[in-house]
Design a protein that fits this description.
The complex is a heterotetramer of chains A (81), B (288), C (751) and D (159).
Chain A lengths: L1 E4 L13 E4 L4 H11 L4 H6 L1 E5 L2 E3 L13 E5 L5
Parallel strand pairs in A: 1-5
Antiparallel strand pairs in A: 1-2, 3-4, 3-5
Chain B lengths: L1 E3 L4 H10 L4 E4 L5 H6 L7 E4 L9 E3 L5 E3 L5 H6 L1 H6 L1 H8 L4 H4 L4 H6 L7 H8 L2 E6 L2 E6 L4 E3 L2 E2 L6 E7 L6 E8 L10 E10 L2 E10 L6 E2 L1 H7 L6 H14 L10 H23 L5
Parallel strand pairs in B: 1-3, 2-3
Antiparallel strand pairs in B: 4-5, 5-10, 6-7, 6-10, 8-9, 11-12, 12-13, 13-14
Helix pairs in contact in B: 5-8, 9-10, 10-11
Chain C lengths: L21 H6 L14 E7 L5 E7 L1 H4 L4 E5 L1 H5 L9 H10 L4 E2 L5 E7 L2 H8 L3 E6 L6 H5 L23 E9 L2 H7 L2 E9 L11 E6 L5 E5 L4 H12 L6 E5 L15 H11 L3 E4 L2 H7 L5 E10 L5 E11 L8 H8 L8 E8 L14 H19 L3 H8 L18 H10 L1 H4 L6 E10 L6 E7 L5 E5 L7 H13 L6 E5 L16 H28 L6 E4 L2 E4 L10 E2 H6 L9 E6 L7 E11 L6 E11 L6 H20 L30 E6 L21 H13 L10 H10 L2
Parallel strand pairs in C: 1-12, 10-11, 14-15, 18-19, 25-26
Antiparallel strand pairs in C: 1-5, 2-4, 2-6, 3-5, 7-15, 8-13, 9-10, 9-12, 13-14, 16-24, 17-18, 17-23, 20-21, 21-22, 24-25
Chain lengths: 81, 288, 751, 159
């Protein structure tokens, strides 16, 4: 299981939870499982999110592995100028 | 748009008198082309006066006065050492307009006829007592610079009239002029406030003075109260404060993208003091 | 990436050779957006709304169409006629709506119709004959007013899932994040300071207006030449808006005359293509400067509330920020980015940040260098500076005390990898600038700044020639010398001279998808792909050598441009230079190329610290920047001169934003200052030399350690200058720009 | 609307073109003579990207009509190099990375050349004010100013 830390603005979509647990080996798994277990997260995930794994920000990739025990944060999709 | 390049002012005047629609004279073109390009003013008739003989000449007359051709550019004025020595304020005011590139084209006459209350050279010319020769269907008359603009974008010139020369008086002794403007950057801006000062001394005492303000009213102002505030003084602090107060009191500015009423009113006083000090130092032959 | 894969000793990287396109750029022969023409070409022009908000009742183009010089007129109807791919929605829909107004004109300058004619003058003249009937609607341009209950609604239903109930429909996105308990943190503080800040919208101000040349036939095949930061996004967007297949539109990026984020989307390109399709001739469209200001992306304006608690020793106990960003008549203002970046420089136990994306009757905001971050840094770093003043603490010491470092839980959530903030602060403290005496009337300010940086889709091909030279094709337009950086990295891997590498920005038909030149990603991502493409070519070179020597490829390694046996056991062969291998490559297996494509994830965040001295004229409120020093972590500077250039450029834009640049709207909602004369960007005489210090804390996510440098440099200046000005003037400046009237008014209010 | 026939000298070549009276010299250089080195950044004389010299005088070609070019001698960025030998300013701009995007570069080179012809020994302040009408948004001007001043120094040493 991966503990996923959400940004606090998402708590209203997860019944107040800011940390949710899902089964995932990759970033793609993680997003799919998040939507499956918390359907209301589909909105923000569709709008675009990035995932930080042990501090490394994965901007868009769905195939990045998530090592056992890593610290995982969901973040708003990053943009640049 | 029809483009003409007449060979004389009489011809230019006749072209303008007989033209229909919007007529513009083209000297340096640094305002006319901007207006044309942005479609603010698309003249039906454009009369280029630069092919007229002598329009670029800068001439010192026997009595010490100066006659400038209407197409003499800011760059040519700045490069003229004698003119710069006589009338540093007028030359510097002209030099403040736009970039080096604009200086290569812009003229005193164009700056005046554009009718902007923020035109840099105009307060300096008004302070200096400059007049212009106006050629029209009925011949040529001489008009004080302060009588040319009548409001933003408007002049007292009537149909068929064209400015044919700029006349700067003889500088005389113990006299100096200066022009300062406020802009937020160091270059390339339109004046938020402009102040021209010309004065003459007897010893340390100011005996003659003309002070004019730009960008604080619909037209450039010649402010008598400012002159009174320093005439008879040695430009001591009390006189300077009185000058600043008179300058601020004369302001009737607007709030716009370039500055607020409060700012313009306040800074008019500040610049009046600073410009007066420079003119005073110049009159005493000090470097300023 | 494994550390042993990382390179630390370099031959080419870190040197400062002449850029490959230098000659083109100094002789006037480089072709920018407006420099291209085509046989039979028409010139386009666009009619724009004079109203901030108006319903378009009717457009009559018949008089314009009747002119013999006019070959096509288009309005939104010409786009809607197109059988769109199903589901033109989301950002594509927003872009279409921005490119050509639909039912309503949403801002002053919004395009409503366009003409193609035989000359530019004829096109402009024809616009005057198009009659548009408007029903003028109430408008709003200020962010706080746009959120007020009585504000006119820009568009119903634009808000997404994130907006809490009860907010005005103009609030379209909401972000909240942080950790800890801020109230508890404030209770622990010796000093709690709360204040509000405002910044105006500014424009990227690139000197080259948008320009393009489009050709589209009714067979759905087209060509587009345009000035853009990303021609694949232009391709994808134009194809969607015109209802053609993406691959049928070939887009070539011209040389680009500045972008800074503003050329990451399309404005005139779909219009040129629509006109071309209708006229069946190539159409060139070039914006005027006024169009650029009125209708292309400025950055967002912002209104912000900050509260920070601090102990007497400078320890920050809690921080809270609320950031309201106005991004024009469409969703997109980066309130979330502002919030996430605002406190990112600090190691905070208790932090909370809220960001709003608010619509108003202004042009659609576009990215501008670290979009969203500078405003937040202005507010936060101003409060920290004020607290340092109140507590008598040194501003760099306080920042060092609270600085984020490797392992710190970032204000936006995760823990940092190796970062270089502390190194920039230490370098600032040690810099002679920081201890130089100030003259009366001068003040000094410092600020930190943070930006995420970006990777993005990247595809690079490197092909070797028989003579041993290399051609490198990248897909990221070169805005500031990136060809030089790419050639240096390729030279480093191949071991051939820098001059032997020709770098080309490939068109969309010759390379796979590449994300835009944005997010400080070019040297990072295209650089990473260049290194890997070169390594790919090296593998093949080693294979050819192995075959020739008849030893296993594992027994061959690449050194100084030659294949060599990997060790004494591999055999005794003379080094085989690259050119010897490529000379025979046609007969030893065929041409040799290297290729790499990926979406690299590991851009590495970046920090900078700026020091600035300012002098304020107390009688006029005019500010002069007397000294400026930029210190920033570049990870690894590939071409240090161009890294310095990025630092200096960011600082200069920041100086403009801080002091004089702003969008000024009249009561009528029209932009008042749409020319350079009145939109006052810094001129040469406004600025001092800008000193730079390149800190190098390698990014673990790049083979050579590169972190992007393009954006972070604009984050600290607003606050650093505000702090310098406030310290010089003796009054805290809370609104940007700090124009002379504002400073003078503040001085008066302060007595 | 009748067109005007204009004969002029550009970079030493006698050329002629037909133009609408409303067309600027910049329009004519770019669209009639295919000299696209001068750029239109603003059309109002505020950015200097269109800088050329006319009879030796530095001007914005967007602030001059094509019709006014009759009989004049015009120099543009395309005429700065001497054959295949770059002008020292051009060389120095490349060496100093005094350009990033390069859109302002042609105008700045024309303006800087004009400065050094008039004043071979400019101070930093003089250089900055002379170039104040040439906007650059990329560099912060630092490397541009250094390149101009170093070129001036080298030219002085060489003469």
């Amino acid at each position: 299981m991966v503990e996923v830390h959400l940004w606090s603005g998402l708590r209203s979509l997860t019944g107040g939870q800011q940390v949710v647990e899902v089964e995932a080996k990759t970033t793609g798994d993680l997003l799919r499982e998040l939507v499956r277990t918390h359907p209301q997260l589909e909105g923000p995930i569709e709008a675009g999110v990035s995932i930080a794994i042990d501090g490394r920000v994965i901007a868009t990739g769905l195939t990045e592995p998530i090592p056992e025990g890593s610290e995982v944060y969901l973040m708003q999709r990053l943009r640049g100028g | 748009m029809d483009y003409h390049s007449p060979a004389s002012f009489a011809e230019a005047s006749a072209l303008a008198a007989n033209a229909t629609g919007v007529t513009r004279f083209l000297a340096g073109g640094t305002d006319v082309l901007v207006q044309l390009r942005s479609e603010l003013v698309t003249p039906d008739t454009l009369i280029d006066i630069k092919k007229i003989d002598g329009v670029s000449d800068i001439t010192r007359n026997a009595d010490g006065s100066w006659t400038l051709g209407v197409a003499a550019t800011g760059a040519e004025m700045s490069e003229h050492a004698e003119l710069s020595r006589d009338w540093p304020g007028v030359v510097e005011a002209m030099d403040l307009i736009g970039s080096t590139q604009v200086q290569g084209r812009a003229t005193l006459t164009g700056n005046l006829c554009n009718g902007s209350p923020a035109a840099d050279s105009v307060p300096a010319m008004v302070a200096a007592g400059v007049t212009v020769s106006v050629t029209g269907p009925d011949g040529t008359r001489e008009v004080a610079v302060e009588d040319i603009p009548t409001g933003p974008g408007k002049t007292s010139l009537s149909k068929g009239e064209v400015i044919s020369a700029v006349n700067i008086p003889a500088r005389g002794n113990n006299a100096g002029d200066a022009y300062l403007r406020f802009i937020p950057r160091t270059e390339m801006d339109i004046a938020v406030v402009g102040v021209g000062v010309s004065l003459r001394l007897d010893g340390d005492t100011v005996t003659e003075a003309r002070v004019s303000l730009g960008a604080v009213a619909p037209t450039v102002l010649l402010v008598e109260d400012c002159a009174k505030a320093i005439i008879g003084s040695t430009l001591d602090d009390a006189a300077l404060d009185a000058l600043a107060a008179a300058a601020s009191a004369a302001c009737n500015p607007i709030d716009d993208k370039r500055g607020t009423i409060e700012f313009r009113t306040e800074v008019a006083g500040v610049l009046a003091k600073r410009a007066a000090k420079i003119a005073y130092a110049r009159a005493k032959g000090e470097k300023a | 990436m494994a550390l042993d894969d990382r390179k630390t000793d370099f031959t080419f990287v870190g040197t400062r050779p002449n850029r490959p396109d230098g000659l083109d750029k100094v002789t006037g022969r480089a072709k920018f957006g407006a420099d291209m023409s085509a046989p039979g070409m028409l010139h386009g022009a666009i009619l724009r709304s004079p109203h901030a908000h108006a319903r378009i009742v009717k457009i009559d183009t018949s008089k314009a169409e009747a002119l013999k010089d006019v070959k096509a007129v288009v309005t939104r109807a010409d786009f809607a006629d197109v059988p769109f791919k199903p589901g033109l929605a989301g950002e594509f829909w927003n872009v279409l709506e921005n490119v050509m107004a639909g039912e309503k004109a949403l801002y002053d300058g919004h395009a409503v119709a366009a003409v193609a004619a035989t000359s530019a003058l004829a096109a402009r003249d024809a616009l005057k004959l198009i009659e548009v009937e408007y029903e003028v609607l109430p408008h709003v341009t200020d962010v706080d007013k746009a959120m007020a209950p009585d504000a006119p609604v820009i568009r119903e239903g634009a808000a997404d899932y994130s907006v809490p109930e009860g907010m005005h429909p103009n609030v379209v996105r909401y972000h909240e994040s942080g950790h800890g308990d801020v109230d508890a943190g404030f209770a622990e503080a010796d000093l709690v300071l709360e204040d509000s800040f405002v910044t105006e919208a500014t424009h990227q101000g690139y000197i080259e207006p948008h320009a393009c040349l489009g050709l589209l036939g009714n067979d759905g095949k087209g060509e587009l030449w345009c000035t853009t930061q990303g021609h694949w996004i232009a391709q994808k967007t134009c194809a969607a808006l015109l209802g053609i297949e993406t691959s049928q539109l070939r887009v070539t990026a011209s040389e680009i005359g500045g972008g800074f984020g503003g050329k990451t989307t399309v404005f005139i390109e779909p219009v040129a293509l629509a006109l071309s399709r209708k006229a069946n001739r190539p159409v060139k469209l070039v914006m005027t400067r006024s169009e650029v200001f009125r209708a292309t992306g400025p950055t967002a304006s912002a209104s912000m509330d900050i509260k920070i608690g601090m102990k007497k020793d400078g320890t920050i106990t809690a921080a809270r920020g609320e950031f309201r960003l106005q991004g024009g008549a469409f969703p997109g203002a980066p309130g979330d980015m502002t919030a996430m970046c605002a406190f990112a420089a600090y190691n905070l136990t208790n932090v909370k940040q809220i960001g709003y994306d608010v619509m108003a009757n202004r042009p659609k905001q576009a990215a501008y260098r670290a979009p969203g971050a500078p405003m937040g840094a202005f507010a936060v770093e101003s409060v920290i500076d004020e607290m340092c003043n109140k507590l008598g603490l040194d501003p760099i010491e306080v920042r060092l005390k609270n600085a984020a470092h490797e392992g710190t839980k970032a204000s936006y959530g995760p823990r940092y990898e190796r970062i270089g903030l502390v190194e920039t602060l230490e370098a600032a403290k040690a810099h002679p600038h920081y201890s130089a005496p100030l003259k009366p009337g001068q003040g000094r300010g410092v600020s930190c700044g943070f930006w995420f940086n970006h990777g993005g889709e990247t595809s690079v091909t490197l092909a070797l020639s028989e003579d041993g030279s290399a051609q490198l094709m990248v897909g990221t337009p070169d805005i500031g010398g990136s060809r030089a950086s790419m050639a240096l990295m390729a030279a480093e891997v191949l071991g051939i001279p820098y001059e032997n590498i020709r770098v080309t920005v490939a068109d969309t038909a010759t390379l796979g998808y590449n994300d835009v030149s944005h997010g400080s990603r070019v040297t990072y991502a295209s650089g990473l792909a260049t290194i890997k493409a070169a390594r790919h070519a090296v593998e093949k070179l080693c294979e050819r050598a192995a075959a020739k020597w008849d030893i296993p490829v594992e027994a061959v390694k690449w050194e100084n441009g030659c294949a060599v046996p990997s060790g004494p056991n591999a055999g005794d062969f003379d080094p085989m230079p690259l050119a010897d291998i490529t000379a025979k490559m046609g007969r030893t297996g065929g041409p040799i190329s290297g290729h790499f494509e990926a979406t690299p994830e590991g851009a590495g965040v970046s920090f900078g610290t700026h020091i600035v001295d300012a002098e304020v004229d107390p009688e006029t409120g005019k500010t002069t920047i007397t000294r400026y020093t930029v210190i920033q972590d570049a990870g690894k500077a590939i071409h240090p001169t161009y890294v310095e250039g990025q630092f200096q450029g960011g600082a200069a834009q920041g100086i403009g934003w801080a002091l004089n640049e702003e969008y000024i709207y009249g009561e009528d909602g029209r932009l008042q200052n749409s020319i350079f004369l009145d939109y006052r960007i810094p001129v040469a005489s406004d600025l001092p030399m800008i000193d730079t210090v390149i800190v190098e804390v390698p990014n673990p996510g790049h083979p050579f350690g590169v972190r992007g440098v393009g954006e972070t440099g604009i984050v600290p200046p607003l606050a650093a200058i505000a702090n310098a000005v406030s310290n010089a003037a003796g009054v805290r400046m809370k609104q940007l720009p700090m124009s002379p009237p504002r400073i003078l008014a503040a001085l008066k209010d302060n007595g | 609307m009748s067109k005007l026939h204009v004969t002029t000298t550009v970079n030493g070549d006698e050329v002629d073109f037909l133009c609408d009276p409303r067309e600027t010299l910049l329009d004519c250089l770019r669209d009639k003579l295919n000299l696209t080195g001068a750029k239109e950044g603003c059309g109002t004389g505020d950015c200097g990207a269109c800088s050329v010299t006319v009879d030796g005088r530095l001007v914005c070609s967007c602030l001059m009509l094509g019709a006014e070019a009759e009989g004049k001698t015009i120099e543009t960025v395309e005429g700065i190099a001497d054959g295949d030998v770059l002008h020292p300013l051009q060389q120095k701009f490349i060496e100093h990375a005094a350009l990033q995007c390069g859109i302002c570069t042609p105008g700045i080179l024309v303006a800087a050349k004009s400065l050094l012809e008039k004043n071979p020994n400019p101070t930093e302040e003089e250089t900055r004010y002379w170039l104040a009408g040439n906007l650059c948004r990329c560099t912060g001007y630092d490397k541009i100013i250094r390149a101009v001043m170093e070129t001036a120094e080298e030219l002085r040493e060489a003469s």
